[in-house]
Amino acid sequence: MNYNVNEKGYYGEFGGAFIPEMLYPNVEELRQKYLKVMAEPEFQKEFNQLLKDYVGRPSPLYFAKRLSEKYNTKIYLKREDLNHTGAHKINNTIGQILMAKRLGKTRIIAETGAGQHGVATATVCALMGMECIVYMGEIDIARQAPNVARMKMLGAKVVPALSGSRTLKDATNEAIRDWINNPVNTHYIIGSAIGPHPYPDMVTRFQAVVSDEIKWQLKEQTGNENPDYLVACIGGGSNAAGTYYHYLHNPDVKLIAVEAAGLGVDSGESAATSVLGKEGIIHGCKTLLMQTKDGQITEPYSISAGLDYPGVGPMHAHLAKTGRAEFMAITDDDAMNAGLELCKLEGIIPAIETSHALAIFEQKTFKPDDVVVVSLSGRGDKDLQNYIEYFKI
Amino acid sequence: MNRIKAKLKEDKKLLSIYFTAGYPNINDTVSIIKDLEKNGVDMIEIGLPFSDPLADGPTIQDSSTQALKNGMTTEVLFNQLKDIRKTVDIPLIIMGYFNPMFQYGVEAFCKTCKEIGIDGLIIPDLPVDVYHEEYQAIFEKFGLINVFLITPQTSDERIRFIDSISNGFIYMVSSASTTGAQSGFGDEQTAYFERIAKMNLKNPQIIGFGISNNDTFTQATKYAKGAIIGSAFVKHVTNEGITSISKFVKNILK
Ligand SMILES: Cc1ncc(COP(=O)(O)O)c(C=O)c1O
Question: Which residues form the active site (chain B) (predicted)?
Answer without folding.
Answer: 45, 56
